[in-house]
Specification:
The chain is built from seven helices and no strands. It is mostly helical. The longest helix has 26 residues. The N terminus is likely disordered.
């Protein structure tokens, strides 16, 4: 049975100030340390996209030592703000045991289900707001 879980909305002001695409481009260019230095303050301030990036950095060990516990921590912080990719990345860590995270297929399933529910809630809210049903 799937339970209905309200997921908090990401902090829009914080997320709008953090440019995930620019940080991802810098990461691809091999500037992991720079990305870390410029992402950590936003992540600690609660920006979901910055928390997602911190999870990625710790998962792959870019600009920081690879650390599965830190990756899980930051992915979970972003996921609990409704970030679907964070839920999926968290599920993948648990499913495959990446970055030293212990394989836990039950937790992986939970994360993937939360990702799907979060995405469906977001799409439903978007559709309802289009026809004026909700604001």
């Amino acid at each position: 049975m799937i339970e209905h879980v309200q997921t908090p909305e990401p902090a829009p002001a914080l997320d709008s100030q953090y440019d995930l695409d620019a940080m991802m481009e810098a990461l691809v260019q091999g500037r992991g340390e720079w990305v870390h230095e410029n992402t950590r303050p936003a992540a600690e301030a609660g920006a979901a996209k910055a928390q997602l990036m911190m999870g990625i950095l710790f998962q792959i060990g870019a600009g920081v030592e690879r650390d599965g516990r830190e990756a899980v921590k930051f992915y979970r912080l972003a996921a609990l703000q409704g970030d679907v990719l964070a839920w999926r990345n968290l599920g993948t860590l648990y499913l495959l045991g990446l970055a030293g995270v212990e394989v836990d297929k039950t937790e992986a399933h939970h994360c993937f289900m939360r990702a799907n529910m979060t995405e469906m809630q977001s799409k439903a809210k978007e559709l309802l707001s289009r026809d004026g049903t909700i604001q």
